[in-house]
Amino acid sequence: MIPLSIAAILLSLPAFVVSEPIHIEISRRAGRWPSSPSDFQAAADFARSRYGYGKPSNSTTKRMQRRASSQSLPFVNQQGDSSYFGTVSIGTPPQSFNVILDTGSSDLWVADSSCRNCIRETPVFNSGQSSTFQQQSAQPVGISYGSGQVQGLLGVESVSMGTFSVAKQGFLKVTAISNGLLSGSVSGIMGLAFGAIASTQAVPFWQALVSSNQLATPEMAFWLTRFRGSRRFAEEEPGGSFTLGGTNSSLFQGEIEFLNLITPGQPTFWLLGVSQVTVQNTSVPITKGALAAIDTGTTLIGGPSADVAAIYSTIPGAIRSPTMEGYFEFPCSTVIQVSMSFGGKVWPINPADMNLGSGSSSNMCIGGIFDLTLGSAITPSSGNPSWVVGDTFLKNVYSVYRVNPNQIGFAQLSDLAGSSGSPQAGSGASRNDARHATQSMLAISFAAGVAITSYLL
Questions:
Q1: Is 399 helix (H, G, I), strand (E, B) or coil?
Q2: In which order are the strands placed within the sheet that holds 271-273?
Q3: CATH code at 345?
Q4: DSSP-derived 3-state class of residue 134
Q5: Active site residue 81
Q6: From the CB of residue 61, how many other CB atoms can be counted at a distance below 10 Å?
Q7: Contact 406, 260 (CB under 8 A)
Q8: Looking at the 3D structure of the chain, how many domains does it have?
Q9: Which of 39, 45, 295, 391 is catalytic?
Q10: 255 in helix, strand or coil?
Q11: SS3 label, residue 350
Q12: Would 327 be classed as within a structural domain?
C-alpha cells in the first residue's frame, strides 16, 4: 500500500509532465525462507521451461516467452530474495495489482475474478467493473512453466504504472492457474522483454510507452535489495527501485558499463554473451559464445552443464546433489567467491547469494548456480540462451535495459544501495541497510508509483 504522504504527491502530479525521474520505494515479500528441495527444484524447472530445456506438462499450451518523463517505482522483495514485484493499475476505474516485474518474459497477465482455483488472498481483476475492458477472443490461451501453467482469455484494457498509461494494452485475464504458481498478494506477471516472444502477441507495456514517447529516455533500471543471509525478515520488505524512463543516480557510482545486446534476429530476450567466470579468483573454462538471458524474473543463475560442473570443480569438497537434479552442494564452511563478465568489467557476486542453505546433510550447502541445460546440446549460433542470469547476480549491480541502441548496462551500487565499495568484494546490503536506503531515497526524491516484491521463479 502506498503511504498517504506519497499518494498526496502522486495526486498533485499531472500526467506526462514530469521532466525528471521519480524514485519510488520497492517492497519485498518474505514469508518462509524458500529452502526446501522442492522450492529450488521448482525454480530450476521454471527456468528450463522458459528457455526451452524443460518439457511442458501440456504440449497444447503455449510456452511463455518470456519522452515526457521517467519514474523510479518502488517494489517488494518476497520470500528472502526469491522474486520482486511492483504495482500495476488496470481498468476504469483502476484496479491495482501486484505483478512480478520480469525481464525474462513479454506478456502481462493477472488473475481474474472467474479464476477457478486461485488462492483466496490473491487480488483478482473484475472486468465487469471496468468500463474500458474489451475481450478479444473466447478461445483460451495458455502459458506453461516448468512449475505450472496459467490459462485465460485475451483482453484489451487501460493499464498504468505511476503516471504512465497505455489506453489499449493487450493482456491475459487468467481463469485457471496451477497450485503454487502464485502466492500472497501477487496477482500476475508483467513481462519486460521484447514483443517477439509474447504468447499473447500483444506489444509489451514498456514498448508501448516508448512508442508513444512517454519516457524521457527509452530505459528501465533496477536496484534489487538483499535479505538472503538475514535471520529474520518480515513478510514484505523493501525490494529496491524500478525506474521507467531513466536511471537513479543516487543508487550507483561510477560509469554505467553498457554492452550491446546480441540479437541474431529480431530482439527477443535481453541477451548478452558470457565472456568470463571466476571462482575463488581462478578463471573457469566456459563455453565460447554462450548467450545469457538477463532475467529479473528468475531467482538464481543457471548455466550449461559443462560450465556449471567446471565452476564447482574448483571448490574443494563440492559434489553433485544426491537429492536435487542439476544442483551442486559444497561444504558450508566454504565462502564461495564467484564473479561474472559479459565482455567488459568483472562483477562479483556476494557469497550470501551463492549459498542457498543446507543440502543433503547438515554440513553441506546448496550452490546458487544450477545446471540449466541438463546435458542438452548447446549451439551458440542458434541464438538460444544457455545461461539465465537471475537475481543471484542482479542483486549485486545496478542494471539498466535500453533500446535505440539495444543495450544492457551494469554499474557498481552506491553506498546508499549497499555497495561493497570494491568490485572484488562481495558485501551487500543488510536488512537495515535496505530499509535505510529506501527511506533515504524517498526523502530526497519525488515519490510516485509502484511497489515490487519477490518470488521463487
A1: strand
A2: 271-273, 291-294, 387-389, 301-303, 369-371
A3: 2.40.70.10
A4: strand
A5: no
A6: 18
A7: yes
A8: 1
A9: 295
A10: strand
A11: coil
A12: yes
- Is residue 308 assigned to a domain? yes
User: What is the pTM (predicted TM-score) of this model?
Assistant: 0.83
Within-domain flag for 359: yes
Catalytic-role residue among 102, 112, 307, 391:
102
CB atoms within 10 A of CB 356: 27
Question: One digit per residue, pLDDT tens: the chain, 457 residues?
Answer: 333 333 333 333 333 333 345 454 555 544 444 456 677 888 888 888 888 886 434 333 333 333 344 555 555 554 444 568 889 999 999 999 999 999 999 999 999 999 988 888 899 999 999 999 999 988 999 887 666 789 999 999 999 998 899 999 999 999 999 877 777 788 999 999 999 999 999 999 999 999 999 999 999 999 998 865 555 555 556 668 899 999 999 999 999 999 999 987 789 999 999 999 999 999 999 998 899 999 998 889 999 999 999 999 999 999 999 999 999 999 999 999 999 999 989 999 999 999 998 899 989 999 999 999 998 876 665 678 999 999 999 999 999 999 999 999 999 999 988 764 344 433 333 444 444 444 343 333 322 333 333 333 4
How far, in whole angstroms, is CA 132 from its chain's centroid? 29
Query: To 10 degrees, the CA torsion angle through 170, 175, 178, 183?
Result: 80
Q: Is omega for the bond preceding 405 within 30 degrees of 0, making it cis?
A: yes
Residues 376, 384: contact at Cβ < 8 Å? Answer: no
For residue 379, with 0-12 CB atoms within 10 Å meaning exposed, 13-18 middle and 19 or more buried, which class applies?
exposed
Task: Examine the residue annotation and report whether 295 is marked as an active-site residue of this protein.
Answer: yes
Distance of alpha carbon 303 from its chain centroid, rounded? 17
Side chain identity, residue 141: V
Burial 219-249 (b: 16+ CB within 10 A, else e): bbbbbbbbbbebeebebbbbbbbbbbbbbbe
Q: How far is CA 433 from CA 113, 196, 427, 439, in A?
A: 39, 39, 12, 10
Residue 95 lies in a domain: no
Domain enclosing residue 338, as ranges:
250-413
Distance between CA atoms of 369 and 338, rounded to whole angstroms? 10
